Each structure stands twice: as structure tokens, then as C-alpha cells.
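Fig. S4 source data, part A: sequence.
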Amino acid sequence: MSKVRMHSMTQIARRMFELLEPICLVTFFADECNEELAALGHRTYWDGYFAGRAAPLGRVPAQVVHAAFYNFADGEAARHIPSAWETIPPEASVAARERGSAASLRRILGELADSPGLVRAADLTTKAATSAPTNGRVMYAGMRTLEVPGDPVARLWHSATMLREHRGDGHIAALVGARIGGTEAHVLSALEQGIHPPESFGRIHHLPKERLAVVMDGLRERGLVDSDGHFTDDGRATKERIEALTDELATPPYDALSRAELDELITELEPITATLVAAGSR
């Protein structure tokens, strides 16, 4: 039976996220990308992260990067932008990010990297990734300005990353609509993952305790977390609504694919994703 016949497009969008996210994670977890960015002269991991991810936007100021990324604390983008671009052009960071990510995928996937299935997955992922409207999608629109690589492995990574940024733009819209700020979003994600106290979550544990206390107090006042820092029923329902809307807003790229193409794409991605998950995408 078809893998997509009985599913709604929002369910397809969620399944595609599950399949594509491990492809994108090599950029952040594997060594090759960081090594390529360091070779350019980026001094730290976060210099390379901000420069590489923001580079498709051009030489925008830190305030714009902060707004587009959304979930970093005040001042974090400004520690890296625009200083990361003072001696390294954005275009060089884009190229280094692509080279390193593709190299990681080739190493982890082994023979799968040269398989006809990967070529087909890259083609279908690219068809979806280059077909959605860019309206209101800042990070996705930036990625759409870049040339799609010819190499199938690099093309798969590039197109998966386009779709990740498309979904991320929609997730930010859902968070803004729910009046959930960037640090608050990390708290809700930590609770969803069973992390307690949520302030210990790796994405926010380094922030000043006073700042985290203000965030937690605000969530308590809104009835989203209880006095012990756990989800309330309203908090859990709010998180679920945000994720459901994120899935709904992530559907447009997949309208470009027929049901048969979606079924084929899922089939071709499954062994690729399984291999990456087994390796922790590193």
C-alpha cells in the first residue's frame, strides 16, 4: 500500500521533517563543516554557525539575524555578526558550509552516497524545495537565492536545508502568533522532551539565571507552567497547537509532488535517514 495514501498533507509534512532533519544535522554535529569554516578563519563554532547560516541573507546587521533566527537570546547574534564577515565574505562561508556538509554525508552514508536512490531522493527533494512561495519566509527566501549544487549529495543536503528553513520560518510564525518568545520556545521544547528543570536545557542553560527566572515567571503568570516548572494542561495544549500549525505551514513545498512521487521520495529517503540516525548524524 502507498505510504502516503492514507495521510493528510500535514502528516506528510511531519514525516518529511523526520526524514530530512538527520540530513541537515551533519552541518551542526559532524566535524567536516566546522573544519571547513575554521579553515576560512572563523575562530569559534558559533562564529561559523552564525556566518554560515545567515550568509544567504547577505551582509545584514545583527538585528536582522537576531530577528530571522528568533530563538537566540538578546545580544547573542551581535557577538558574531557582523564581525564574522569582516574578513570572510558571506559567499565563502556558504561554500564552506556546503562542502563540509556534503563531505560528512558522503563519509556517513558510504555506498549509499553513490546509489541511484540517493540521486532520485535529491531530485525529488529539490523539486519540492524550489517550488514553494517565499512570501513571509525570510530564511527560506535567502536559501532560494543560492545556486542548487549539481552533485547529488550536495544537492540533497542543500534542498533538505532549504526545506528546514522553510519549516523554521513557519514555526516562527506559529510562535509569534502564540506570543511565545525565543527563550520561552526552548523552555516548552525542553518540557516536551522530558527535561526538568527546563532551565537545564542545553540551548539555554548558559543564560544568566536572572534572565531565565524572568522567562519562567512569565510562563507561570500565563498559566503555561506550574509552580514546579512542569507543563500545565494549557501549556501542553499550547505547545501542541504550535507544532500542529508548524506542520500545516510546512505543507506548500510538497504540493509540487504527486502522491506517487511523495511515496517514492519517502521510500528512497528511509535507508538514508536510518543510516544517519544510527550515526547520530556525526
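Fig. S4 source data, part B ends here. The first helix runs from residue 9 to 24.
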